[in-house]
Design a protein that fits this description.
With 641 residues, the chain is α/β, with parallel strands linked by helices. It is 32% helix and 21% strand. The strands form two sheets. The chain has a nine-stranded mixed sheet, sandwiched between helices. A nine-stranded mixed sheet has the order 10-11-12-14-13-15-16-17-18. Strand 16 (555-559), helix 19 (589-594) and strand 17 (601-604) form a beta-alpha-beta unit. It is elongated.
């Protein structure tokens, strides 16, 4: 799938105006991918710039400062200002890579730009700055709920850089029409994303931060990347499609040919596809590629190429000889610190992941009309941003009977079958029909197999214990269960990789269930209007979303449901895989369950307190909806005719 996404052609245009129309719409979506759309639509809060000290040097000064990109979200930076500025000059944002003592580590680049006449702001990230926040949520800490929230540290870093552009634009020394951006590694990625998001970036030179989805996933380089390297991807874009938002502005791609994290073949592919894109509007001379032999880093030639690139585009009338490399001088770390060991009180950098993307608020639904409206609106949003990767052409499910027999002990007719949810997978199922069923077609309960669940005998599935023999019993095995199981050593990789391609394990399983239900309905023994889903644990999330999207599903049986999608998983990725991209921006599991009214909900055993909202909604709207709390299905009267 990542290879298909990467190989997709970019759109074709004949004029720059056509390109700009396309860009504006795509850029609007990109802002949502970063989670900054809400902040761009609001009046921007004051930067409240505080200068904590100044270093004066022969040809420039360094202002040690911090600003508030949002109230309480502080960004520490060093502002390098050339001496004796007589007219406004270009400004540059330098964004740091993942190095300790970031501003100190990369100081030579900011100083060189200042020596060349640029006002340059070098800023910390929330990961390795003076205040230590978090970039490695899904990698190290089980923060897969970030995906459901639609949160990526990329969004915060881009927003902090955008406010850095605001800061530069307010300085009398800076020409706000000549702003550029560069950085390395994570800073290279942030340079891409900020230039894609903000047209004030007139020129960009990302270094060692360029790659493709196909390369990152097939070569497993994603495993060494943190969450800031890509925005959330609800629309299933390739990285090349994201990069294209920069066109037709000047862009120099700088990369090392022996980079462990970004393979050279993928970098060349990015360049070749973007080059064709630039050529459409006669801007091919504005895109450059500089590859050098070496590891994930700079070398002298790459730095000089970057300096020359910025001089040529932002100071084209300046006469300059061959540029030299950085001078090798290093300020001491303690001399460049902004906070001097005393951080601002109530700094929100360490908690930004908890509030940067607001969660949906629970709301009062008073009647059936309001419920229908909320449900319709939610389904539209989910199809747009959470399930956009669902197969659009609805390929044939291709149900195959693999084996049919009558069990000699139970005298139940059994069909073992398989089906294809899409062209990549073939999944298994099993259908048991009691020969004593008096009516045909009959109602059916479809149990969703759990990851790691033993094979078992479908008739005696614990989840279906006590179910009346008038019901047909069916089991379907969503991907990652049964014969398509993967081991725990792959869980972390697959959960992160699927998210980068615009899907999650849970969202793919929702699709599997919808297609599996379609397969089950094709059996002559089944009444297609009396299909009930049954699920336990993490599969409850899958069943609830599937029942929401398929309005013909008649009910849901639930055991041990997750309380919320807004919860930590296991650090190694083996916890419940219930994340669905952007879902928490609009809903949560109890709200999804509530919007299933009037479908019956059957809770086996205890249920989390969060589902009280669900029960109150069902009670408020009343008949014909109903919720049952039972110890086993023997206590459930079944579907009401």
């Amino acid at each position: 799938m990542a290879e298909q996404m990467t190989s997709r052609p970019l759109p074709e245009f004949t004029t720059e105006s056509e390109l700009q129309i396309w860009r504006k719409e795509k850029q609007r979506q990109f802002h949502r991918m970063l989670g900054i759309d809400q902040y761009l639509q609001q009046e921007r809060s004051p930067l409240n710039i505080k200068v904590t000290g100044t270093l004066k040097r022969d040809t420039y000064r360094v202002d040690k400062l911090y600003y508030e990109s949002l109230p309480g979200l502080y960004v520490a930076g060093n502002l390098y200002v050339p001496n004796n500025i007589v007219r406004s000059v270009p400004g540059i944002i330098y964004v740091c890579g993942h190095a300790k003592n970031q501003k100190t580590h990369y100081q030579e680049h900011a100083r060189k730009f200042a020596q060349l006449g640029f006002v340059t702001l070098i800023i910390d990230t929330i990961q390795n700055g003076e205040v230590l926040g978090e970039h490695y949520g899904t990698n190290n800490h089980g923060c897969f709920h970030w995906i459901s929230r639609g949160y990526s540290p990329a969004g915060v870093e881009v927003w902090n850089a955008i406010r850095g552009l605001d800061l530069l634009s307010e300085l009398k020394e800076v020409d706000e029409t000549r702003l550029g951006m560069t950085g390395i590694s994570g800073g290279g990625a942030t340079s891409w994303w900020t230039a894609c998001a903000d047209d004030r970036v007139k020129i960009v030179a990302p270094s060692c931060g360029t790659g493709t989805l196909a390369s990152h996933l097939s070569e497993r380089t994603i495993d060494d990347h943190c969450d800031c390297m890509i925005p959330t991807n609800p629309y299933g874009w390739s990285m090349i499609e994201m990069y294209a938002l920069i066109a037709p502005r000047p862009c120099l791609i700088v990369s090392a040919s022996a980079d462990k994290l970004f393979k050279s073949d993928s970098i060349h592919l990015v360049y070749e596809k973007l080059k064709l894109f630039y050529q459409q509007v006669g801007a091919e001379d504005k895109l450059g590629l500089m590859m050098f032999y070496g590891p994930h880093s700079y070398n002298s030639d790459s730095r000089k190429e970057i300096f020359h690139f910025f001089m040529s585009h932002l100071m084209p009338t300046t006469i300059h000889n061959e540029l030299s490399d950085v001078d090798g001088f290093k300020e001491k770390n303690e001399d460049l610190l902004v906070y001097n060991g005393i951080n601002p009180p109530n700094d929100e950098s360490t908690t930004v992941q908890d509030w940067f993307i607001p969660l949906t608020k629970t709301y009062m639904i008073r009647n059936q009309r309001e419920l229908n409206f909320e449900r319709d609106e939610l389904v539209k949003k989910l199809y747009t941003e959470s399930f956009s990767a669902f197969t659009q052409d609805h390929e044939v499910v291709d149900v195959r009977i693999e084996q049919s027999y009558i069990d000699k002990e139970t005298y139940w007719s059994t069909h073992k079958f398989s089906f294809s949810p899409d062209s990549y997978w073939r999944l298994n199922g099993e259908l048991l029909c009691p020969l004593t069923v008096s009516s045909s077609p009959a109602p059916v309960v479809i149990a969703l197999r759990e990851a790691g669940a033993a094979r078992g005998i479908l008739k005696s599935y614990p989840l279906l214990e006590g179910l009346d023999d008038k019901w047909v019993r069916t089991r379907i095995d969503p991907r990652g269960t049964g014969d398509t199981s993967w081991g725990p050593e792959l869980s972390l990789h697959l959960r992160r990789a699927s998210n980068w391609t615009g899907r999650t394990i849970a969202s793919m399983r929702v699709w599997d269930v919808l297609r599996g239900v379609q397969a089950v309905r094709s059996f002559r023994e089944i009444d297609p209007k009396r299909v009930v889903l049954a699920a336990k644990g993490e599969m409850v999330a899958v069943a609830l979303y599937a029942a929401l999207l398929d309005d013909q599903i008649a009910g849901v049986i639930i055991q041990n449901p997750p309380a919320t999608q807004n919860a930590l998983s296991e650090p190694n990725g083996t916890g419940p895989a219930i994340e669905i991209i952007h879902s928490l921006r609009y809903t949560d599991l109890p709200q999804v369950a509530g919007l299933l009214w009037p479908k019956p909900l059957v809770f086996i055993g205890q249920r989390p307190e969060t589902y009280r909202w669900t029960e109150q909604l069902y009670r408020r709207i009343g008949h014909p909806g109903g919720i049952w709390h039972v110890k086993s299905l023997a206590e459930w009267p079944g579907l009401v005719e």
